[in-house]
Amino acid sequence: MDNIIQTRKIEAFDIYGLAYNCPYLLRIDGCPFIRMDKLSFKKKVDWIKGLNDNEIEDILDYHFSCSRKRKTGT
Q1: How far apart are CA 47 and CA 43, in angstroms?
Q2: pLDDT in 10s for each residue of the chain, 74 residues
């Protein structure tokens, strides 16, 4: 149970960082955060707080897949 709680805390931390900025500087088409770039940080936080676990998981899955593609150039 503790591992699940710790994982959720890490995921929540990751998603806040991703909402603030893309680690690759430019978001690509399809990025779930592309529409968030012009929002204030408070509005981003409010949006994230409204996400359910499945939505967070989908966003992080997209991020990890995108990161792998960008690292390998495929």
Answers
A1: 6
A2: 444 444 555 566 688 888 888 988 899 999 999 988 889 989 988 998 899 888 988 898 899 899 999 988 76
